[in-house]
Amino acid sequence: MPGRLDGKVALVSGSGRGIGRQIALKLASEGARVVVNDLDDGPGAETVAEIKALGAEAVACNGDVTKEGFAERFVQAGIDTWGGLDIIVNNAGYTWDNVIQKMSDEQWYAILDVHLTAPFRIMRAASRFIREAARQEASEGREVFRKVVNISSTSGVFGNAGQANYSTAKAGIQGLTRAMAKEWGRYKVNVNAVAFGLIMTRLTEAPAHGGATIDISGREIPVGVRPEVLQTAEKLIPLGRGGRPEEAAGSVYLFCIPESNYVTGQTLVVAGGRP
Questions:
Q1: Which of 36, 67, 206, 219 is the most buried (most CB within 10 A)?
Q2: Are 271 and 200 spatial neighbours (Cβ–Cβ below 8 Å)?
């Protein structure tokens, strides 16, 4: 049976691990051809291998999404490999938390760059192909929808203490989403956002149970949530637990299928019922 996304070309940033990997696998399982990205070559190659094991197609375009020239290289990877571009998922990112009096300019700009500037650049790099393809399709009397899904957070919807940088960036991506939904509507591009609550990945797992650091441009940044904070957070979730990466991926998938063709400029909160 054909997949819901057969023949579609999808770019998924930050898809070497966690939620991003599950998004890439979900799209591929429905027939999409996926350009995978991770900061490091190893995880990116692992996701490509998993997709190929499903019988689907994938290539890697690894590297830092915040670097000059990355966005153009990422977009071109899909166009050069498969001749098209149908889905963009701006997922790459991390947290670097602190209270405001202890937050450096470096922390502030690093988080805005990865969560807001990088998606802006990727969409800008894709704009020429999208405009030209949409005009050609319209001249042929065809209505072809494309999809952009930007990953936000409940920190961007409601704010979160100790995350002035992250909350601001994730609120900003919602503004970019709404603006581009209006700007690209004429090209039949649906632009939506998904705001995740507590999803259990290496960025949220308790340090006492294998919490890690991540290497960003040579700097080791601690990740993870203290066990007591994690337990309290889960108790406040009506569904009783944090989400799984594959559940998070499912919500992104909803914005990539034809049933969402008349939905644009929206933010879907995926938090297990927690406001």
A1: 36
A2: no
